[in-house]
Amino acid sequence: MMQFGLNHMTAPRLNARDLLAMAAGLGCVGVEFRNDLDGPLFQGEAPEDIGAAARAANLRILALAEVKAFNVEPAAQLTDTLALMQTAVACGAEGIALIPFVADAQSPRADQRHTLRAALEVLLPPLEDHGLIGLIEPLGFANSTLRFKADVVSVLDDMNRPACLGLVHDTFHHHLAGEDTVHADVTALVHVSGVTDPAPTADQMTDAHRVLVDAGDRLGNLDQLQTLRAAGYDGAVSFEAFAPEIHQMTRPADALARSKEFITSHLARWAA
């Protein structure tokens, strides 16, 4: 049975407690909270209180997002990163999201691997000290400074795959990067969103195109999820939609329930 999660970006108008309530009502296993929405994280509530509310709802806090541009001068932003780690520990989050910088121009893949390794060497000790997973999420945009999951896996292999580091498979970014291979054995979290607008090509797609997954999806979400499952991934699949029309929905739980049913019913049919 697929485990679903809910990223706060999908329903940013909800406060933290309402997000927990909606996630519980949808039968999700956990949520991801974000520090890049309007207002302070948890709307200023103490992280310990939000953690207690999550546990009371039988929900995990899958991650706090995000350390932005984590692969650019990581030592210079270590104070802010440590503060996020401390908040994650206080609320009982399992990890923190590590998001790469998107530059003005493309960078060689060798450079991307080098900067990733340098950043992880800075972040590894505090992640281990705090008992957290660093969730590395490559972005498939052409100018991303960490575009390919294969490069993340290569670096993790060189580092003997530290237990405190994991990969995020984002179905949108997987499509944009043109990757074929999934890496289920190092994947710690999956993000799902769909693109139904027929106009943009892959290199024209932006976060604003990211809606919930339905029959009009162009990203191959069902194929990606089936491939991940067949390769052994059994972790959370978290809804992460950025499109303004999703954010403006007055009944987001209904739309999420429909998308959840669409995904589960089709994957069950394939597995039968």
Would you mind describing this structure in some detail?
Strand 5, helix 5 and strand 6 form a beta-alpha-beta unit. The longest helix is centred in the middle third of the chain and has 22 residues. Helix 2 packs parallel to helix 3, helix 3 packs across helix 4 and helix 4 crosses helix 5. The chain is built from 9 helices and 8 strands. Helix content is 39%, strand content 16%. 44% of the residues are buried. It has a single domain, classed as Divalent-metal-dependent TIM barrel enzymes (TIM Barrel). By secondary structure, it is an alpha/beta fold.
E-strand count = 8
Distance between the termini: 13 Å
Name of the CATH superfamily: Divalent-metal-dependent TIM barrel enzymes
> Beta fraction of the residues?
15-25%
- Strand arrangement in the largest pleated sheet: 1-2-3-4-5-6-7-8
Structural class: alpha/beta
Number of helical runs? 9
Q: Note the overall shape.
A: globular
CATH architecture: Alpha-Beta Barrel
Poorly predicted ranges: none
The CATH class designation is Alpha Beta
Number of domains: 1
Give the integer mean of the pLDDT values.
Answer: 97
Helical amount:
25-40%
Kindly identify the CATH topology.
TIM Barrel
Sheet having the most strands? 8 strands, parallel, barrel
What order do the SSEs take from the amino end to the carboxyl end, as H and E?
EHEHEHEHEHEHEHEHH
Estimated radius of gyration = 18 Å
